[in-house]
Amino acid sequence: PVLRLLEAQLQDQRREHEEEMEALRNQMDLMQEELEKQQQAFLQTLQLSPEVQVELGLQQEITRLTNENLDLKELLEKLEKNEKKLKKQLKIYMKKVQDFEASQIMVPVERRPHERKMQVAVQRKEKDFQGMLEYYKEDEPLLIRNLIT
């Protein structure tokens, strides 16, 4: 059973290898044909007068630059779309930050000094009681919220 499995795997690998080799041969044949066409075009160009050779060279360069220009134009359009998208996201985040800052301003003023006193108390008490702290019963929800955040 193991020998048959190994033989089947070897045959599959051999078949895949042969298919790859055939594909590579076909690709090589296509490249050879393209090379022959280019050689023929080059030989024909050499037989032309120098003025015509220059004109053909210029036409080829214009074509190449036009294609390159189109590619760059596409890239520019993509980047502009991306820029617009990022600007929209930035506006959204700026709005969220402003809303958050506004909500922080809305916190009652009497709680703020109380929170500062509690922080100072925590720092002093940590040294004296090694992590224990004293607080008022009405400050318990605030303390829990601060511990969680």
Automatic annotation (TrEMBL):
Descriptive protein name:
MYO5B protein
Q: Which UniProt keywords apply?
A: Coiled coil
Query: Which gene codes for it?
Result: Myo5b_1
What are the coiled-coil residue ranges? 3-103
